[in-house]
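Researcher: Please translate sequence to structure tokens.
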Amino acid sequence: MKLYYYLKEAHLHLERLKEILEQINHLYPVTQEKINNLTLEEKNALDVLAFRFSKLQDLLGVKIFREYLKSQGFITEGKPYRDILKEIDNEGIIDIDTWSEFREVRNNIAHEYPYDENEKINAINYLIQNISLLETIIKEIDARSFK
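Model: Translation complete:
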């Protein structure tokens, strides 16, 4: 039952991400010049993009993966996060290396380090390119869980 509500929340984050992407698609690929000339609306849209991406990535990694595995009969109680990821990888939902990239990008985007402007630009571009992968993960878990 928890999985159903977590996935419902994930779909809300995903829908908001898609709405924001439509608003900022003219910025892609993000460059230093574009960052320097952002309007207030564009800055706010990028903030929402980063926030929703972080929320969705956390929701998937912390709650949905565990609940999905429980629903498939995998024991998750007391299991380290790495074991959860290995099982998600074994299920063919997402491989550990790709998920690690998502976490790294999330960390780069979540922190405001003015001296890491290029890392932030690369993170935003990566995020924009890979939101569809998050959508695929959600749809895959949906399809396997609620046939």
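Researcher: Any highlights?
Model: Residues 40-71 form the longest helix (32 residues).
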